[in-house]
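User: I'll paste a sequence; please echo it back and then give the predicted structure.

Assistant: Echoing your sequence first, then the prediction.
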Amino acid sequence: MKISKLSILFLALTINLGLLAQESQRVTAPVKEAAVFHKGAKLTHTTTVTVQKGVNTITIEGLSPIIDQKSIMIKASKGVFVSSFEFSVDYLSAPKTENVKVKKWQDSIEVCRTAIAKIKTDNKIKSELLSFLKKGIEKNVSGSESGLGMEELVKNMDYYQTKALQLETEIAANYEKINQYETTLARLRNQTEQEEVKNIKTSGILELTLSAALAGTTELTVSYFTTAAGWTPFYDMTITSMDQPIKIAGKANVFQTTGLDWNKVKLTLSTAMPGQTKVAPLFSTWFLNYITPYYGGYAEGASNSYSYQGSISLNTVSDQVSYRGNKKTEEASPVPKSDIPVTYPLYFVDGREVAMREALSIDLNSIKSREELSANDATARYGSRASGGAVLITTKSMEDYIQQSDDHLNTQYNIEIPYTIPGNGKGQTIDLQTKETNAKYKYYCAPKLNSETFLLADIEDWEKLALLSAYANITYDGTYLGQTFINAGSTEKVLTLTLGTEPRVSVKREKLVDYSSIKVLGSDTKVLLTYRITVKNNQTKKINFVLKEQYPISKLKEIEVELLPETTTPTFNKQDIGVLTWEMELNAGETKTFTVSYSVKYPKDKNINLE
């Protein structure tokens, strides 16, 4: 049986089409979720692909090039499973998304360079003309044996002065233009370098082999860990007055340089520390032995307002609100005709009266509470114009979109609204939850260390606030005081915050010479030291004040220290080792004096530090 050329051609075409069908299908998977840790982030990409029955090869583009390959996880739906995968970085392909800002700045840089080159060329020509002018004048003046007449000489001098001044002025103006262009050029370069922190020159690629029992579509989910992201917490502490609770607003500074822009992703912030292998310690046998002292030297070692980008899917409330009225409007569905006259209710959103159209366009997901007032209640509150009743709508604040969860190892903040985090490494500030707590205030001074008086806030049961270790910006009575640090790992029962200094509470520490002395007793020297501390409250109100003073403690038997109670002001609380503490109330304008006296005896052939 002969096979015709047409049959052979058809068979070859069928084989080629089959081979084409087996070629890798290239798709892009955008970032949908980002779980950000203090150091690193887990990114989740999703995409939908069409698969044929049997083996399929898929290439997923648009992944971060900075990936811990051991963390890659791939899931497929509808009975499709992943046979194998391989991750690589594409260094050759052009960036899929062009940075418009960088392109604009690079064009401006090129314009500046061209302008500078033209001006330098112009200056070179003008300098040569100035040189030719000077040589020409010299030749005219000295070229004739009899010399130039006075009239000709004056003409030459005038021409030289006019032309030379013109050229010199133009050259100076050109240098000024060059300086301006170079200043602009430096700014453009700095801005470009800052924006080019985004790693868009390379891209991560994932080659997948999928096996499908049937042809159809499947959803691929790819997740992995990257080190090119992170977040740091901080707080804004607002103190209105000492009789009001402290407002502690938690915030997060989120940054990433993964080579991708996270557009409208579901964001989760976590305090977990992934990627660290830890093993619980176990004791080994402790053997005692002699040690040899080492007398060698040693080397000393060197030692974010909320900006939301994104969109929310809007679901109007028009189908869930009952309308009353006899007037046809664009917002309301037609109502049955009735002989009973009714009016529409007033609408208030967060205490502000708004039009019904605006109230009904609010996204259901952004409503925190909704209250309907009867005609009588509404009239009593808003007057006769509310005879149709009133609807009070309260919208969610940022903290209503954040769900905080705690487990044995970490704290998570799940944010319901989508976020956009650019990949330029700049910190994006995100508002977290705001908490309130009461505090006890006191003034504190340790004049031996610092003669300034500090205002402190003591917060009891502070562990209930679930704070993180972070810096806090403190604002008191509308004035920014500075920063303090919250140590969430502290074992203290009371969290003490330093709010700032108070110059109106003055403290003076002075040595009393008449009550201090140095005596030699046999082989010992005995030193007597006495200090007086004066405290004055120059405020117009009573305050709680804590004063601390230090005296030395001996670690050697031959050095004896004695605190002299007869000349030391007694304390009324438990005394710390080497520290005296006085707690008191100071009335407005009141002054109090305290003395500390102690003696130190030590061998006279030794020197010790007594200051």
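Helices lie at 5-21, 100-143, 150-195, 356-360, 375-382. The first strand starts at residue 25 and ends at 28.
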